[in-house]
Amino acid sequence: MPGPPAPVILLLAMVISLAIFVPLTGILVRFRANYNPKGLQLDSEGGATPHTGPVVRSYFGMLLRVYRLEGVAGLYKGLMPTAISTFLVSVVILLALDTDRPRHGRYRAPETGILGTLFYSLAMLIISLPTAILTYRSITTPHKLTYFNFMGALRTLLTPTEQRRPWVLYLTPGLMAAETIHICIVVLFLGPLRRLLLPGISDPGLKPGDVSIVKLVIYLIILLVSVLALTPLEVIATRLAIQRNHASAEFNSVSQEVEGDADENVEYAGAEEDVIGLRNEGDPYLGLVDCAKRIVDEEGWMTLYRAWWITLLGGLGSVFA
Questions:
Q1: Which among 23, 64, 149, 235 is most buried, taking Cβ atoms within 10 Å?
Q2: The Cα angle at residue 203 between residues 198 and 205, in degrees rounded to 5
């Protein structure tokens, strides 16, 4: 008896993965995006005032805070842009790659050699970057976004400059650099080491005795060390993705025009307070290095390693994928 057609399997896998991973991803993005300076802040008159924003010290603490302030709807912020991008990528895989095994979750590049994999990954980055930015902003915005008011959501998430010139999203200071370095570490360093030390480990017919314990331990140690570089890049990319680009003829590409560019009629999602604190748009990060330096100076170096264990779990999952 023939099984269900591939499109049905693909759709079912997508629905299940969205139901599970959208809340988990949303909590991760909010936890890493939460601005929590350790020192005093200067008010408009130059006086020192203590920071009064939310202090959330763990991933699960953020989960409880989101649920308490925004309920289940808050856990599914970012659902629509995630669903649209997942659907489009799934259609491309189904039609263009002609695969009999629909994939879900995080998509891996086809095995085409190091340079082919790097080219594929960078191409996917270029295609998916605007959607990723919209997803991160829809997760972290304090405003309530309706699922089917697409244009209204864009007016809330994008500045007038970004609406007029969408390509400005690619010029977000430091974002492409952070994502590209992340891809290079995974593709040019971890990928070849995995194939060298653990060839065929993802083969379903592989027996436990066929895997060298010594080589597996060596690779896991290398993977753990790589997390020291990957996690800060992911935190920095999150901060840069939610930093909106304001520009005009008399300002450069990172000058902030924060006055009068928001829709004042948009309802706030939290009835009592904002779930996370966001950095003042009037003082933007100027790039990857500047973002890292300011995070360390203002919030402490441990901020760069928020939810490092999720990065490690992702790496461990890729070993056997």
A1: 235
A2: 120
- Domain of 149: which CATH number? 1.50.40
Q: Give CA–CA dist 172/127, Å, rounded.
A: 15
Tokens matching residue 103: 């994939």
Indicate the average pLDDT of the chain.
81
If you compute the radius of gyration of the chain from its CA atoms, what whole number of angstroms results?
A: 21
In-domain check, residue 151: yes
Dihedral angle of Cα 11, 14, 15, 17, to the nearest 10 degrees: 160
- Tell me which residue has tokens 């065929």: 200
Q: Is residue 234 part of a domain?
A: yes
- Establish if 315 belongs to a structural domain: yes
pTM above 0.90, yes or no: no
Q: How far apart are the two ends of the chain, measured CA to CA in Å? A: 29
% of the chain exceeding 70 in pLDDT: 74
DSSP notation for 288-319: HHHHHHHHHHHH-GGGGGTTHHHHHHHHHHHH
- Residue 260 pLDDT greater than 80, yes or no: no
Identify the CA nearest to 64 among candidates 35, 36, 29, 27.
27
Tokens of residue 66, six digits = 């989101």
Q: Which residues contact 257 (CB under 8 A, 6 or more apart)?
A: 159, 161, 246, 247, 248, 251
In this structure, the number of other CB atoms found within 10 A of the CB of residue 134 comes to: 22
Under a CB-based contact definition with an 8 Å cutoff, are residues 292 and 232 in contact? yes
Neighbouring-strand partners of residue 41: 49
Distance in angstroms (rounded) separating the CA atoms of residues 187 and 260: 43
The string of pLDDT tens digits covering residues 46-92 is 555 566 668 888 999 999 999 999 899 899 999 998 888 887 776 66
Instruction: Answer whether residue 159 is part of any domain.
Output: yes
Q: What is the pLDDT of residues 119-170, one digit of tens each?
A: 989 998 998 899 999 999 999 998 888 877 888 888 889 999 999 999 999 9
Count of the separate structural domains present in the chain: 1
Residue linked to tokens 């402490």: 300
